[in-house]
Amino acid sequence: MLVLGIETSCDETSIALVNNNDVILNLVYSQIQTHKKFGGVVPEIAAREHLKKLPILFSQLVKETQIDINEIDGIAVTKGPGLIGALLVGVSFAKGLAIRYNKPLVGVNHIVGHVYANYLAYPELRPPYIVLMVSGGHTLILKVNESMHIKIIGRSVDDAVGEAFDKVARLLGLGYPGGPEIDRISKDGNPKTFGFPRPKMYDPDYDFSFSGLKTSVLYEIKRLKDAGIEELPIKDLAASAQEAMIDVLLHKTTKAAKDFGIENIVLAGGVAANSRLREKLAEYTLEFNFFIPPLEFCSDNAAMIARAGMALLEDGKNDGLGLEPSPNLFEMIGDEW
Ligand code: ATP
Ligand code: MG
Ligand code: FE
């Protein structure tokens, strides 16, 4: 099945063509340079950038793949969760194409898209599995059962882990996005220098809390400054903060897998790029199989949306022109799909 995918939920404008588990082309335009000077994503600017870039990327896709769009079986677009203005641009563009080419159109839950990204990297992967979905907007543990039903079994009760990386980076005077910067400088730091708290680590649930970490880092910086230390041990602070986050993520994910008797663990989202996280997985490889898709399918992209939409199109689903974006999909549809 040949599906055109469109993703505009946050700050990546992406359009892709996917044939079953094969990605023919996945074009991703990151708006990061545009938002960098504001220290975070500005929703209004994101929407405008999507509007500018989508037609350009679509023309590029047609030109590079040489595929006649009349031959596709359907169109899949992210319907949420995400920034409402940004989502509206993608959904409207997809509707335009659905009319122009007279094709079925399905709205895809962005989180479900992240789960399906794994089939692009690992076509042999079969449920059940546990997903650790870690990005700038989400920190979730998902349980995917034999029939691909997805259940959220854990989530951050406050900040997403990527957000926590970004906030700690800002405190340390590092650039945006902070995750990759913390990752980089932590390699020369000692993760044991500062014993930052690991909230909820031993709670019986699978939830997380990351908002306290930035406060702990802030207090530590203040303490060091009050003690007359002029040059802050940035690398040790970064490495210790990173270690605290990763310890909780890995402990809770493996606990979930153990509790449900599931051997396969899948990583998704931008934070899955973290080198320390990947390194520490080695401690658990005797018990579990880990699936870590390449970063192009971990961070936001339209190929994963096309692949998830394919499952809906195969079931004969067509949302047509009635499709509406929903920024808070969790509230609307609950915890299970
Ligand atoms: P969502 O997918 O939830 O809508 P998003 O688009 O912001 O949100 P991604 O693009 O998947 O999420 O991930 C971006 C986040 O990943 C940022 O917070 C960034 O700091 C973090 N990140 C990227 N690389 C690394 C890394 N190597 N280590 C830690 N964090 C990282
Ligand atoms: Mg992003
Ligand atoms: Fe995402």
UniProtKB/TrEMBL annotation:
Function text: Required for the formation of a threonylcarbamoyl group on adenosine at position 37 (t(6)A37) in tRNAs that read codons beginning with adenine. Is involved in the transfer of the threonylcarbamoyl moiety of threonylcarbamoyl-AMP (TC-AMP) to the N6 group of A37, together with TsaE and TsaB. TsaD likely plays a direct catalytic role in this reaction.
Compartment annotation: Cytoplasm
Binding note for cofactor: Binds 1 Fe(2+) ion per subunit.
Binding-site residues, substrate: 133-137, 166, 179, 183, 274
Transmembrane feature ranges: none
InterPro entries with a match to the protein in the record: ATPase_NBD, Gcp-like_dom, KAE1/TsaD, Peptidase_M22_CS, TsaD
Cofactor(s) in the UniProt record: Fe(2+)
Record domain Gcp-like: where: 23-306
Annotated GO CC locations: cytoplasm
Enzyme Commission number(s) from the entry: 2.3.1.234
Keywords: Acyltransferase, Cytoplasm, Iron, Metal-binding, Transferase, tRNA processing
Catalytic activity: L-threonylcarbamoyladenylate + adenosine(37) in tRNA = N(6)-L-threonylcarbamoyladenosine(37) in tRNA + AMP + H(+)
UniProt-listed GO biological process terms: tRNA threonylcarbamoyladenosine modification
PROSITE patterns referenced in this protein's UniProt entry, alphabetically: GLYCOPROTEASE
Residues that coordinate or bind Fe cation: 110, 114, 300
Phylogenetic placement of the source organism: Bacteria, Thermotogati, Thermotogota, Thermotogae, Thermotogales
Protein name per the record: tRNA N6-adenosine threonylcarbamoyltransferase
Biological source species: Fervidobacterium gondwanense DSM 13020
GO MF assignments: iron ion binding; tRNA N(6)-L-threonylcarbamoyladenine synthase activity
Family label: Belongs to the KAE1 / TsaD family.
